[in-house]
Give the backbone structure.
Amino acid sequence: HAVADSHGWSLDGIELFELASAEQVLGGDRDQSVLYSWEVELGETVKLIEEQVERSKPRRVVFDSLSEMRLLAQDPLRYRRQVLALKQYFAGRDTTVLLVDDLTSSGGERDTHLHSLCHGVVTLERLTLDFGAARRRMQVQKLRGVNFVAGYHDLVIRKGGLDIFPRLIASQHGEDHDSGPVPSGVPELDALFGGGPMRGTSTLLTGPAGSGKTSIAMQFIVAACARGEPTTMYQFDERVSTLLSRAGQLENDLQKYVNDGCLVIKQVNPADHSLGLLSRPPDCSGALL
C-alpha cells in the first residue's frame, strides 16, 4: 500500500493475498514446532494459492516473489517441478501470470530451467556508474510468438509509473525529405560547402575551445528558423541563458524563434541522462541540428 500511495495509485479492485507467517500457511490446528517439514510447507502454500485463485477467479496474477517459494522448496528440482505444476494449473484458465524473481538465491545468475517454462522473460537491471545517477535498463530476452525489439532499453521510474525508451532502429525511422543543400545564410561559408550540407546528412564540427564551433552551428539554426523550418538544439556544455546571451551579442535573436515555437532548445545534463532518454523527441517536429 505504501508503494502504491507513493505513486498515487489506487488498489481498488486488486485483491492482495499475503502469506505472512508459517501459521497462516500450515493452519492453526497443527502442533506447534520450531521447524516444519519443507514438503508440507510448499504443498500447503501452493494449495492456498489455488484456493485463492478458485475463489476470486482473477484475470491477472502476480507472484512477488519466487524467492519465498524457492526457500520453501529448498531443493532446486522440486522448486522447478512446482513452478511447472503452477504453469499447467493456469494454462487452462483465462489468466495472465507475472512471476517476479530477484535472482538473489541463484547468485544473480539466470535460471535457465525457469526461463524455459515461461512464455516470456524480461530482465531489469540497475547500474551504478562512477559518475552521475544510477541507470536502469531492461531487455526482453524471450517472448514467444512476438517479434520484439531485442537489446537493452533505458527506463526511468517516476511518480505514477515507468518511462521506457525503446532502442532506436535506424531502418524504422527513415523519412522522405526534399534533397538539396541546407544553406547557413553566410555566402562565403555556403560557397565552401557547395551550397551547404545536404539534407539528411550529419556534419561534425571539431576544434578547440573558442574556435567557433557553436557560432557556426548557431548560424545554421538562425538560417533554418528564418526559412520557417522547425529546429531543435540540444545544449550540453552551457546553460540556455548563456547561449541566448552569446547569440544576442552576435546579433542572432534566438529568443524570438523560441517564443514563436520554431526553435526548441533542450538543456541536457550528461550526468543524469542516458542515450535512451534522448530518443524521445521534443515538442518540435523539426530535425536535430
Q: What stands out?
A: Residues 283-289 have pLDDT under 50 and may be disordered. Residues 175-288 form a domain with the Rossmann fold fold (CATH 3.40.50.300). The first helix runs from residue 2 to 7. The chain has two domains: 2-170, 175-288.
